[in-house]
Amino acid sequence: MRQDATETNKEVPMRWCVMLVAGLWSGLLCAAEPFRMQNLMLLQPESVMRDRAENVDALAAYVKALNATASRELARVGAPRPAAGFVVVAVRPGGRSRVWLDLAPALPDAVANPLVTALERVPPFQAKGGVVVFALNVTLWDAPPTERQGPWPAAWQRAAEGEQSPMEVGDLVDRVWPASAAH
After folding, report:
1. What is the dihedral sign for C-alpha 150, 154, 155, 161?
2. Smallest Cα–Cα separation from 91: which of 119, 68, 67?
3. How far apart (Å, rounded) are the C-alpha atoms in residues 108 and 78?
4. pLDDT per residue rounded down to tens, the chain (183 residues)
5. What does the alpha-carbon distance between residue 82 and residue 64 come to, in Å, rounded to a whole number?
6. Model-level pTM?
7. Cα 119 to Cα 88: distance, rounded to the nearest angstrom
8. In the beta sheet, which residues pair with residue 98?
9. Cα–Cα dist 177/145, whole Å
C-alpha cells in the first residue's frame, strides 16, 4: 500500500508539469498579435493612384514590408497596450516616405517614435508624378477595430485649422510635409 502511495505521489507532480507546460504553450499560441492590418484605405481618387502608383505589385510588396516591420517593432514592446486606428503613409517620387500614426488610445512616445522611424526606413515603391497617400487600418495587440471611417492624424488637423472647405489629401500632405523638405 505504501508503494502505491509513492507511485501516486510521483504521478501527481508529472501531471502538474504536463498541465503547466500545456498551459504555457497554449498561452504562447494565443498571445496577442502585436500588429494586424484590417484593410488598406486609398486616400486619393483611383485615377490619381493609378497614375502615381503604376506598379501595383510594388505597392503590395511595400505594404507587406510595412506590416512585417510594424509587427517586428511592436513585438519588442514590454508593456503592450491595445490600440486601433490608422498608420497613414505618404510616398513621394524619389523613394521618400512619411508616416503618421492615428491610433486610439495614442501610443506612448517611447513606442510611437521608434515605430514611425522603423516604418519610414522601409524602402517604398516608386511613386511617379506626385505624392501617393494611403492608410493601413490596423489593430495592435488584439484591440477591437476602430469604427472611424478614416484617418485624421493630429499633424493634419493642425495643418487644416482655419480652412473653410475640405482639403484634398495630397494638398494637405504637401502642407504638413512639403516636397522641398521631404526626406
Report:
1. positive
2. 119
3. 12
4. 555 555 445 554 555 444 444 444 444 444 689 999 999 999 999 999 999 998 999 999 999 999 999 999 999 999 999 999 999 999 999 999 999 999 999 999 999 999 999 999 999 999 999 999 999 999 999 999 999 999 999 999 999 998 888 889 999 999 999 988 755
5. 21
6. 0.82
7. 11
8. 90
9. 28
Cβ neighbour number for residue 134 with a 10 Å cutoff: 22
Rg (CA), the chain: 23
User: Taking the chain, what is the end-to-end CA distance rounded to the nearest angstrom?
Assistant: 80
Q: Which residue has the cell 485624421?
A: 152
Instruction: Determine the Cα–Cα distance for residues 80 and 143; give it in Å rounded to an integer.
Output: 11
CA 78, 84, 90: angle at the middle one, nearest 5?
100
